[in-house]
Recover the amino acids of this structure.
């Protein structure tokens, strides 16, 4: 009886030691971050292509990657958030604010005034947090000399909730991006021009964003994955036997 492939599509990869590939995509995203004008990105791809894993990995490693490019990571505050389950703007803003509070760098005005007196911090702590107050806090981040970068996963869910997230919601995000106060990295199964009504799309992303379609992993990446250990240690053996590795790679060829 032939062996079955031991690999199944599962949840996103949260341990950076098991993340493989996507180096070109990571470089493109970082180049959009550190340019003179940050360019927001729509990360597009079907289910299980790796959008969530890529966003999570970027969030986990961006400080090290920026430092490697000679860029001070304290100039950025990145958060990762899946927007599934959010049915109102205030709740979404409050969750983003909670994550930004943890990511706030201690530099610029924040360093001179002391973290407790940082005006951005006090604004983000306000509850309830409406559109106006959230936007003001984001704009004040520039005065504190850092850029908020929001990695918003499963954005398709917001696109379906037009009563809760109306045109004004997208216009406000567009305004924050236009003034270089905010960068968005949005993951969705469909491009925004198909996900959102045309007047929403023009108002929200328009020509200020960059759309990146994720493709399947390369053969070299697949070979690396097939040789990964079940756990990380200096003497760990591959989780798959040589025969299982061969089977897995052959299965991938037969199911492109």
């Amino acid at each position: 009886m032939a062996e079955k492939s031991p690999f199944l599509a599962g949840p996103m990869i949260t341990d950076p030691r098991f993340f493989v590939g996507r180096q070109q995509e990571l470089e493109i995203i970082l180049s959009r971050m550190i340019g003179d004008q940050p360019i927001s990105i729509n990360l597009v791809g079907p289910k299980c292509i790796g959008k969530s894993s890529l966003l999570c990995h970027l969030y986990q490693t961006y400080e090290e990657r920026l430092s490697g490019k000679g860029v001070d990571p304290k100039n950025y505050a990145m958060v990762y958030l899946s927007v599934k389950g959010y049915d109102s703007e205030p709740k979404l803003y409050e969750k983003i604010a909670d994550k930004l509070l943890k990511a706030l760098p201690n530099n610029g005005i924040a360093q001179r005034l002391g973290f407790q007196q940082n005006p951005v911090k006090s604004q983000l702590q306000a509850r309830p947090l409406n559109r106006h107050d959230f936007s003001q806090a984001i704009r004040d981040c520039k005065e504190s000399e850092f850029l908020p970068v929001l990695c918003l996963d499963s954005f398709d869910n917001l696109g379906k909730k037009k009563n809760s997230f109306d045109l004004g919601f997208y216009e406000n995000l567009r305004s924050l991006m236009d003034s270089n106060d905010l960068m968005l990295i949005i993951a969705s199964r469909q491009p925004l021009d198909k996900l959102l009504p045309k007047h929403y799309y023009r108002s929200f992303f328009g020509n200020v964003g960059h759309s990146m379609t994720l493709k399947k992993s390369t053969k070299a990446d697949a070979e690396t994955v097939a040789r990964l250990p079940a756990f990380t240690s200096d003497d760990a053996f591959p989780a798959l036997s040589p025969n299982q590795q061969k089977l897995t790679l052959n299965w991938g060829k037969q199911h492109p």
In short: The longest helix spans residues 51-68. The beta strands are 40-44, 76-82, 147-153, 183-188, 209-213.
